[in-house]
Predict the structure of Citrate synthase.
Amino acid sequence: MSELTKGLEGIVATQTKVSSIVDDQLTYAGYEIDDLTENASFEEVIFLLWHFRLPTAGELQNLKDQLFDNMVLNPRMYSHFEDYATDQIHPMTGLRTSLSYLAHFDPRAEEFNEAAHLNKAIRIQAKVASLVAAFARVRQGKEVVKPKKDLSYAANFLYMLFGEEPTPLQEEGFNKALILHADHELNASTFTARVAVSTLSDMYSGVTAAAGALKGPLHGGANEQVMKMLTEIGTLDKTDEYIQKKIDNKEKIMGFGHRVYKNGDPRAKYLKEMSRKITDETGQKELFEISVRIAEILKEKKGLLPNVDFYSATVYHSMNIEHDLFTPIFAVSRVSGWIAHILEQYADNRIIRPRAEYVGDVHRKYVPVSER
Ligand SMILES: CC(=O)SCCNC(=O)CCNC(=O)[C@H](O)C(C)(C)COP(=O)(O)OP(=O)(O)OC[C@H]1O[C@@H](n2cnc3c(N)ncnc32)[C@H](O)[C@@H]1OP(=O)(O)O
Ligand SMILES: O=C([O-])CC(=O)C(=O)O
């Protein structure tokens, strides 16, 4: 058996054409993330990830139409949330359930061929936005808002969440955030999705499993924890003491560090600039100043740099998005990548089944319960 590498660090577990990280550069199907973030729509990126090429105008319109047509939810998808104390259910818990529950309403859920996979892909990508928005509104006792024709995916999500159309600037910023979070090679949730479907289980199983993995604070759940930390710090003058205490206690600081990037996350610069702008515009400059100060301290004292989750927190906060929706929003974007990897796994599958090194007791003999 090969040697154990804790956390599978550095282990190449699959080949992929979906995205790559080489020399701290992130590309989606060969396109640099900077190029896409500055020029593309999230819908184009979805198509790119699923088909490894950019869509023609006709293909793009077709995808937009299909996404819109599938965004409306069967009311039973969210009415059941009224039965629970929704304020005690984390929206990622709600989303994990909802992704699984979606299969109950898909007549082709058990069909296993390329056309059925693409049909599920569209349904899941379209409905994930509506699900997160519906959960947020149901728990506030508000009416669920139906999507609006001819809005972009980014604008429609914000429209369904807030009940009003975003400004062009908000839409542009949110579109960029969706692109930046869409895929990231073999991160924990994507690996989870691939493992789940490598048994030839269906796409709903894959995205449900992946959502469970994304929820954890070492992965997608970090963005919510960043905002918790910023709230606890409160003012710029308390930042140094707060962070020093965490360092002394050997606590992890959320939004920093990365398994692959050791010279910085290329997505963070966009989110930092967005954070600078939007905190300024909304009169919350100090939140940005605290963030920058945390980054300075961690760079100096621990050599740690911000990851994608750090500045996204203040961006979403400044857009008036509730903090526990940050990770579900990450999922709204990342579903596109999970699906791309699931399709790729189906296309050239072998069950993912590594080995474990046994380190427990050996040569034990059963003792009857009366003698123990
Ligand atoms: C979308 C995403 O998933 S991005 C990541 C989001 N997660 C976070 O922001 C949570 C905070 N960060 C972390 O926990 C880690 O950096 C991870 C999970 C991202 C990567 O983990 P790993 O690759 O296993 O790195 P590991 O945890 O071994 O860190 C290496 C060293 O840096 C330290 N370190 C890494 N990240 C941090 C951090 N955020 N705060 C403090 N110390 C840290 C570790 O304590 C460790 O130090 P040691 O060698 O003295 O024990
Ligand atoms: O790649 C990782 O380990 C985590 C990450 O940044 C992501 O999933 O976007």
User: Anything to note?
Assistant: The domain at 222-318 is CATH 1.10.230.10 (Cytochrome p450-Terp; domain 2). The chain has two domains: 17-218+325-347, 222-318.
